[in-house]
Design a protein that fits this description.
The chain is of the alpha/beta class. It is built from 30 helices and 19 strands. α1 runs parallel beside α2, α5 runs parallel beside α9 and α13 crosses α14. The structure holds (2S,3S)-3-hydroxy-2-methylbutanoyl-COA. (2S,3S)-3-hydroxy-2-methylbutanoyl-COA binds next to β5, α3 and α12. The site of (2S,3S)-3-hydroxy-2-methylbutanoyl-COA has 26 residues, from β5, α3 and α12.
């Protein structure tokens, strides 16, 4: 045998062990010896049953994603070959599952006759998160085991289920309470001794027949999938494949599934989502913070400010199992903040996303105070007070006076200079930015802002805390707005001109929705509150013709029932408002702007290309380490459509020469410097380069 696949005997049961670190992915170098071993054992009369187990952290976690797009992915024996060999084996084959059985790993297990799992195991088909559908029988076998409706939900969400739920759904046949392999061997031997005919999942129909008789519930789920797909092909293809499992003979459904998989894996959407899968992991590799740099232990934390952000940050810490003391200036403000936290958790319980016990456990990790001294033993304190430098400096001065030596002092500032805040303390090496995105207990992005003096182990500490909070951390440098908000300014720079020149708010928002954004900039502004931008502009001595006019009319957005749109009777649904469009026309007339119909393509070029250009400048200034970090920021913090891979990956899809040509065109037409192409972008375009091929 190879060192990747080994075989040993436990009596007349053969145990096949896969050892292909780090996640036992189904690489070609693993498939070949595995196929050979199973083929030999299948015809060995001395072997009465077979157990397939894995060494290391997990059972097979799927196909080897790094092989996609190469000949290795399709080279035989491929996974369908393995599945066919397994299910035709004339003796019991048992999958022994620990860690995660995901994607092709679960498909391999489904081709076995039985599955035994440890209590902590998770099982799922996450292919949709890679822009794919299960490509080796998952959409045909899983519905036969757990029923079409549960299978559809698992496949379209891509979320795994735990072993207990899997047992209840008959996805696993037994839970191993003791040693997994020993229990699996005992289970296999018992099945062999029973001598009952082996049932292949492909031959089962008992869970499909009732749905075939009455498709209403199932079709309702499919309609919901279609409505939520927002331009993504994989969820729709996955749903169609599950419907095929019900309507088609097994082999026909398998072929249709394979054809759909081959189509998706070669498409831009899957390439974009696979790019993001690796980009998220790449982002945690930070210059000067190698694996040898240990994070400081974080057992107790503090949050300063119990407003929207402070409350959300405290919830994130509690959700990550980390005790937190939240500080406010007055009892009244503290009570209000704690009340909001409690209400938010109760909404989650009502929605069924957490149990009442989990809510109580999380609330039990949060306590409040109005006394800075109560933060003295915290290992990490995160400030979330008003976005004004004098207030930040005052808070950090107080923190510096009371926090214990070695405590990490973090600011949640969205824009301000972390170096200046650090200079307000005697310990700038312990100061860092941890920029959460609202709502902080929901949005996964965490921009970790490294100051000039921030120590490497402080960065490691923020990264580790981010992981514990299940955030997606990206380390960025200090500039106004860091990466996300700096590029957001570029995306917004032409919005007023587009309005004055003839595009309505709803036309601009529709162009964004059709691109795949969850909402357009004007819907977003009404949701966040137009008065926030208005206050910032006034503090910077800037103006916005339309935005200022709306705020002067008290139209702040959803919170006032009117903004760019109307929100009738407390509804959150935006309705176009003729009064706003008349205001825009009147302003345009005053300014002598000739109005015209503006095509969606122009709207996208004048908003998203400046974002790409700003991203190129950010890379030149080393504010971001690599283009893929920018993609992670935008897909996790602002809803950039994952099927386009983030702004920099998308720019490659557009073609950098085209991006540069259009930037120069609009620079000439408008004179706005957001269109002046960055030197590095012009260089990449001129030399046939791309962001995704760009060395880190
Ligand atoms: N292929 C290749 N590399 C993988 C991989 C995979 N499937 N999964 C993880 N890695 C690498 C990862 O890049 C990282 O590398 C290291 O392993 C540790 O990963 C035919 C077509 C299993 C839950 O989508 O969800 O099967 O950065 O940091 O936090 O129908 O990895 O160390 O160099 O994430 O402990 C379906 C994806 C594939 C599972 C472990 N399977 N992986 O999490 O470690 S498509 C998936 C995960 C498929 C079939 C279809 C997680 C994990 P590096 P990690 P972790």
């Amino acid at each position: 045998m190879s060192d990747i696949v080994s075989v040993r005997r436990e009596g007349d049961v053969a145990v096949v062990t896969i050892d292909n670190p780090p996640v036992n992915a189904l690489s070609l170098r693993m498939r070949q010896p595995l196929y050979a071993a199973l083929e030999a054992l299948g015809t060995d009369d001395g072997v009465k049953a077979i157990v397939i187990a894995c060494a290391g952290a997990t059972f097979v976690a799927g196909a080897d994603i790094t092989e996609f797009g190469t000949s290795k992915a399709l080279e035989r024996p491929n996974l369908p070959d393995l599945c066919t060999l397994l299910e035709d084996t004339a003796k019991p084959v048992v999958a022994a599952i620990h860690g995660t059985a995901l994607g092709g790993g679960l498909e391999l297990a489904l081709a076995c006759h039985f599955r035994v799992a440890v209590p902590s195991a998770r099982l799922g088909l996450p292919e949709v998160k890679l822009g794919l559908l299960p490509g080796s029988g998952g959409t045909a076998r899983l519905p036969r085991v757990v029923g079409p409706e549960k299978a559809l939900k698992m496949i379209v969400s891509g979320n795994p289920i735990g072993a207990a739920e899997a047992l209840k759904s008959e996805l696993v046949d037994a839970i191993a309470e003791g040693d997994l392999v020993a229990d699996a061997v005992k289970f296999a031997a018992a099945k062999a001794a029973e001598g009952k005919p082996l049932v292949r999942i492909r031959d089962r129909d008992e869970k499909l027949a009732p749905v075939r008789e009455n498709t209403q519930g199932f079709e309702g789920l499919i309609a919901e999938v279609t409505r939520k797909a927002r331009g993504l092909e994989a969820p729709i293809a996955a749903a169609a494949a599950v419907r095929n499992a019900i309507e088609m003979p097994f082999d026909a459904a398998l072929k249709a599934e394979r054809d759909s998989f081959i189509h998706l894996v070669q498409g831009d959407q899957s390439r974009a989502q696979r790019h993001l899968f690796f980009a998220e992991r790449e982002a945690t590799k930070v210059a000067g913070v190698g694996k040898d740099v240990q994070p400081r232990p974080v057992k107790r934390t503090g949050v300063i400010g119990a407003g929207t952000m402070g409350g959300g940050i405290a919830m994130s810490l509690a959700n990550g199992g980390i005790p937190v003391t939240i500080l406010e200036m007055t009892d009244e403000a503290l009570e209000r903040g704690l009340g909001t936290i409690s209400k938010n958790y109760s909404v989650s319980v009502d929605r069924g996303s957490i149990s009442a016990e989990e809510r109580d456990a999380r609330l039990g990790r949060i306590n409040g105070t109005t006394d800075y001294a109560d933060l003295a033993d915290c290992d990490l304190v995160i400030e979330a007070v008003f976005e004004e430098m004098p207030i930040k400096k005052e808070v950090f001065g107080k923190l510096d006076a009371i926090a214990k030596p070695g405590a990490v002092l973090a600011t949640n500032t969205s824009y301000l200079d972390v170096n200046e805040i650090a200079a307000a303390t005697s310990r700038p090496a312990d100061v860092i930015g941890m920029h959460f995105f609202s709502p902080a207990n929901v949005m996964r992005l965490l921009e970790i802002v490294r100051g000039e003096k921030t120590a490497p182990d402080v960065i490691a500490t923020a990264l580790d805390a981010g992981r514990r909070m299940k955030k997606v951390p990206v380390v960025v440098g200090v500039c106004h707005g860091f990466v996300g908000n700096r590029m957001l300014s570029s995306r917004s720079a032409e919005l007023e001109s587009l309005l004055l020149e003839g595009a309505t708010p709803e036309e601009i928002d529709k162009a964004f929705l059709d691109f795949g954004w969850p909402m357009g900039p004007f819907q977003m502004g009404d949701l966040a509150g137009l008065d926030i931008g208005w206050r910032t502009r006034k503090s910077l001595g800037k103006t916005a013709v339309i935005g200022d006019a709306l705020c002067e009319m008290g139209r702040f957005g959803q919170k006032t029932g009117k903004g760019f749109y109307l929100y009738e009777d407390g509804s959150r649904k935006p309705k176009p408002d003729p009064e706003v469009n008349k205001l825009i026309e009147d302003k345009a007339r005053e300014l002598g702007v000739n109005r015209r119909t503006i095509p969606a393509e122009e709207i996208i070029e004048r908003t998203l290309y400046p974002m790409v250009n700003e991203g190129a400048k950010i890379l030149e200034e080393k504010i971001a380490q690599r283009p893929s970090d920018i993609d992670i920021v935008w897909t996790n913090g602002y809803g950039f459509p994952i099927g386009k891979g983030g702004p920099m990956f998308w720019a490659d899809l557009e073609g950098l020469p085209k991006v540069v040509e259009r930037l120069e065109h609009w620079h000439g037409k408008t004179g706005n410097d957001v269109f002046k192409p960055a030197a590095s972008l012009k260089q990449l375009a001129a030399t046939g380069g791309s962001f995704s091929a760009r060395p880190a």
